[in-house]
Amino acid sequence: MYKIGITGSIGTGKTTIANTFAFFNIPIFNADREIKKILKKREIKRKLKSIWPIIIKKNNIDKLKLREIIFHNKIEKKKLEGLLYPYLEKELKKFETINNREKILVYDVPLIYETKTEKKYDIILLAYCDEEIQRKRVLIRDKISNSLFEKIVASQLSFNDKLKFKPRVINTNFKVFILIKVCLLLIRLRSKYAKKKINT
Q: pTM of this prediction?
């Protein structure tokens, strides 16, 4: 099984890259999507309320307030990660069990390098785009302030720091760049597996 990790800062196009792999029927583990599901669990809401009562309103999580809390205080961010990551790990194991016969799996995970999990993957794709495109995407999509956007970006490793790990960079300014890179990688991988079959 060949594991492809997709990482990058907020709004750089990770999910667009993952969706391109999904178009070729490759299973995708989307960490952000799984976190959203986890946050809907009653037990999680109960735990969140005990830590930050201000973020729960009528049994719903005020995600904007939660973001403001965790991205203004590293200790609070660690608390949230400590609460959610064990649940995320369970979902990851389920995903791998369900897809254990697949030759290629893709993982859309924003914090691969920050969590020091890069060795889990055979290759890591680093999403990149122009800063203004990134900013525009996030402000429109997430409806957050520019200052919160800056805090979120600052909480992650910079693009140059991630480059030190020698990932394969995919420019997401234009979708055609993504399609070309993904197609080339899949052609190479499928050729590799075809050769293995012949040799066995």
A: 0.89
